[in-house]
Amino acid sequence: MATIKDVAKLAGITVTTVSRVLNNRGYISDATRKKVHAAMEELNYQPNEIARSLHRRKSNIIGVIVPNVSHPFFAELTNYIEYYAYEEGYKVLVCNSYQNSDKEKDYVAMLKRNQVDGIIMGSHTVETSDYITSDLPIVALDRNLSNGVPYVTSDNYNGGVLATNLLIDKGCKKLAHISGPLEINTPANKRYQAFIDVATERNVEYVIKQAKLDIFESYEKLAYSLFSEHSDIDGIFASSDMIAASIIHVTNKLGKEVPKDLKIVGYDDISLASMIVPPLTTIKQPIEEIGKMSLKILLEIIDGKPVNTESILPISLVERKTT
């Protein structure tokens, strides 16, 4: 296997000059750079990235921890983070926590060992002390980790207000809200609070159900349970488009017509939302902007710049055929 000394010998320059080319340090003429790259290609030389990162005290790698990258929302979000990270010269390590706090801790420890420059945390488990105390730059997605950790979210409360008011304005008399796990402190819980506030203010009967897992089958079971206990529900605000899609799937099996018998509003506006039958009315999160903003803030922290603790991006109502 070729070494940096072999590259220097073939290029006819010193090892120090090759090192400066690899680490982009100091002035190097174009002719010298071409010699080094030609020698590297001829020898099939691969630089030791770990050694280079130790030398630079920077790896140009960031970690992204999400509950499940196969979930459409996190798939789209991770895609945008990776896209903008690459444009900034960074590579991305993606980790699936599956809402398991032990796995989440293991991934944080692994990312530290691999000397990533920072972490974007999109996983939502209850225990967070292991990385809150870390001096590793961290940005949270839709989650309050601690007062010192900046987070990026959308205007969840306003989204809940728009969704609930739309259902009532469309004539719904009994509403249901299917939320995420409320015991975890996330800004997304404001969707739940907004639903309650609007339904109470407008004197409309309502029920609440909590979805525990990001699994399609669990959403279906929850929907069957909801309709079994409250067959007269005529409007549902789901806290994600995937939950809303599960509800539509169950209503088809039960012979209910959407939107004639049941009106549904989702949340996220994932790319699949417009392809569901019928196409889903939903609250649009700016997924691309969330990914871009979270990366921007993380890189600013890495560079030692001051950042805002809270970044709230606007949402909008996208009305389709389920209302």
Automatic annotation (TrEMBL):
Residues 2-56 form the HTH lacI-type domain. SMART domains: HTH_LACI. It comes from Clostridium oryzae. The lineage of its organism: Bacteria, Bacillati, Bacillota, Clostridia, Eubacteriales. One of its GO terms (molecular function) is transcription cis-regulatory region binding. The keyword Iron-sulfur does not apply. PANTHER family: LACI-RELATED TRANSCRIPTIONAL REPRESSOR (PTHR30146), RIBOSE OPERON REPRESSOR (PTHR30146:SF95). PROSITE patterns: HTH_LACI_2. This is Ribose operon repressor. It holds the Pfam family LacI. Coiled coil: none annotated. Keywords: DNA-binding, Repressor, Transcription, Transcription regulation.
